[in-house]
Amino acid sequence: MSLRPPPAAVLVAVVAAAMACDAGLEPEPICARGLIGVCGTIRLSGTIPDSTDNVFVAAFTSFPQTCNDLILNRQPFIPSSVPYTDSVALYSIELLPDTYEWVVAVWKKVGDLTLTAQDTTLLRVAGYYRSPADSMQPGVVTVPTGGVVDSVDFRVNFAGLRPATDFVTCTAR
Amino acid sequence: MHRALIGLALIALATADAGAQTPEKRGGVIRGEVRDPRGAPIRGAVVGVPGTTLYTFTDGAGRFRLAPLAAGEIRLRAAAIGYTPASVTVTLVDSTRADFTLEPSPLELTPLDVVSTKVPHFGEAAASVAQVTQQDIARRAVNTVDEAVDKAAGVQILNGQINIRGSTGYVQGLNSRVLLLVDGVPMNQGDRGGINWDLLPVDQIERVDILKGAGSSLYGSAALGGVVNLTTRDVPTGFHARLRVTGGAFADPPHPEWRFRNSTGLQDGVDVSGSYGTEAAAGRLALGARHSDGYREQDERDHWQLAAKGRWQASPRTRLDVSGAWAVDQYQVPLSWCSRGECDDRGQIYQPFKVDTTERGARTDSRKGYVSAQLRTVKSDRFAWQARGSWLRTHFADYRRSATEFSVANRFGIEVRAEAHPDVARTVLVGGEGTFSDVDSDIFGTHSQSEFAAYGESEQRTGPARITAGARLDYLAVDAGSLTAVVSPRIGGTLPLAGGTLRASVGRGFRAPTMAERFVHTFAAGFEVIPNPTLRPETGWSVELGHITPVLGAVRLDAALFWTEARELIEPQLILVVDTVTADTTAKIQLQNVTRARIAGLDATLLAAPIPDHLTASLAYTYLDTRPTLAFRPTHLLTVTADYAPGGTGSAWGIGADFRYASRPERIELEGFVDPRRVAVRVLDARASWTSGPVEVRLLVANALNYIYNLVPETLAPVRTITVTAAWSY
What we know:
- The structure holds 2 protein chains of 2 kinds.
- Chain A has helices at residues 7-20, 67-72, and strands at 37-45, 52-60, 88-94, 98-100, 102-109, 123-128, 141-143, 148-149, 154-157.
- The model of chain A has no long low-confidence stretch (mean pLDDT 82).
- Chain A has one domain (28-166).
- In chain A, the strands form 3 sheets. In chain A, strands 1, 3, 8 and 9 form a 4-stranded mixed beta sheet that branches. A 3-stranded antiparallel beta sheet of chain A has the order 2-5-6, with no helix packed on it. A two-stranded antiparallel sheet of chain A has the order 4-7.
- Chain A is mostly beta strands.
- Chain A is 12% helix and 29% strand.
- Chain A has 2 helices and 9 strands.
- By secondary structure, chain B is mainly beta.
- Chain B folds into 2 domains: 2-105, Sandwich (Immunoglobulin-like); 129-729, TonB-dependent receptor, beta-barrel domain (Maltoporin, Chain A), CATH 2.40.170.20.
- Chain B has a 22-stranded antiparallel beta barrel.
- Classes of the chains: A mainly beta, B mainly beta.
């Protein structure tokens, strides 16, 4: 007796496999269609502090000089959190078309924000986009009219959270 | 209708008297074994005297015992799925032995139908009945009952809700238009009417019988779209033990945007059971536990279970079966992903695999259990009666940040029925059933619901044809209020022809609104869900015309046209409610009797054994047309299965595969308010097995191509899962 499967069985198997090759659900693009702003990847490291409330990304058209600048000049003014529990997070934020001197990831401690300079007591700089030419310097990003800038990638290190006073002059601690 | 039922009852009682008055000749017991040509025992084969109350099943060693039998010539018949039935005539004086050797016949499907008429009988059923055998369950190496049922022809499980020929759709578990039976005992939840598929360990299931189409003429409420009967394993004589260990891993999400953890998700489980039995009494205890990391974010779950079964042959004529189970499930709630921009507090929760942080930590504690007892007394080979009582208890508590919800429900049931065989060509069944359900819940309130019913059915053989007719009258009452009556008749028949067997049936089914549907008050999809105590039962007439055709020697085609006219279907509706104080208008969800629908289609199953004893294959296809278009009903449902045993049936090695296709549903509920993304289902499961004596090892690669899909909105279906199952039986 021949044990070769009959052609019909092979045909059924081929049809079944072909029908199964469809990709199914696909990811929503990180840089959503129609998004005006920036998007990219954050690589996270270090132990997440127990007091973590969230991590958000904000941008500044000019590098802030004071704590007031830090709070009042950020875009978006009320930012959304990004995923922070995994080693890699993808983010996108809506921004007005402009040139941004500082795109920064901010760690927020549990507590209520007041949208004043006092908020800096709850906030720490977790990481920021760096210049491809000089990694010691913040990278500059220009969002074109009706456009999006992708691959604005940077690192966040929970073991190296830095207070606002490392970057700006503050009265609040 | 009342007169017809009374008439049926009188016939049964008269037959009972006649049987009791007939002086029984001195008789005895027939013992024997049912084996295949290689000598291997055939488990679960039925052995009986056709046209009488006398039948039994073989145990794990293929042994049977049939008693009491009157002395004289007796024609015994033995049948099992996948084997050609055989008959022998024995002359019984005291105790006699009758052994059967059944020839393999891969296309032999339904030797015994236990679900379409409540009384087991040989031959084709008047309605479509699909079966999943214990061999199917073992071969597929599934871990839960719904995974096993999901592979049956014409059946689709949507997030735990079973659809037989498009009956239920998906309504967030608030009801089921399919009735679940465990050993013939109804087990739909008392509060929501849904089905707890994890009530029983899958390792304790002997087989699953699925009646397609209305079954309310015998089973009452919920049997509007079909009935699923789980038959648990009988307890064999002697000491037996079984250990089953499983371990597996989930595939990582195929795109970095979907990654939600840094390690591979795992699952594991163990089941152990032991039993001891004599011919007089037997008992089995089974314990089990499972853990799963889940395949999506916030999807860990733990499961513990306990199941027991016992039998007591109180006398040669009377047998008592007692069974019960208790299961505890604690799982994180993998809440649906969001539509983009709706709840993007973490930026990415519009992606499958990820959940909204506002419900981080949401979990459910679900506990459920049942006990049931069934007493069957065979008064004679012409008359038997059966009584049963059951108690099903379900308890769930949902813990969320936004709310905590709980429900505790009970369902008590009693049933008495009589089975008469006035002559070998006729079977009469009459019975009465009562069900009392209560619920105590913060979202369903505190309520109760009662159902009282009487039913009768008669089956007549006329030459080769068989005609079955019957009806059931149900009275329903909510919170001891006024009664609602529902009548559910059914008539059907089979007619063997030269080219196969023709079957036809027409029947009415119904489903009483559940207490959850009447009284639910909660929030869903951002809307307040308000109660509707005035809901009426859903009803529907089902018509079926089917034919079983042997095509050549190695192919068998079972095809059926079905047509259901359903009325007063209960569906969630978005309504505008005006606040009488503030005059504000608010959109709310309420369940209402709104839909009149026609569900029609074609169900076809092609079985083939192209290389007898080595390769078997099946192709099941269901075409569904609903008017108006009902939500969550795929137009096309296709299942292709193939199994290959290199060394022939019974060989140590085997491989197989299932492919399931379901077309993209045209419509979903709350379209416009939820993420509309949905795709067709294209899932391939591959498997391999190795068996040696008491040890079996099975490898299952479910969703082998890691096809990413969803069956209901914003809820991801399982990804590729590799599972290894090892079992040892003593």
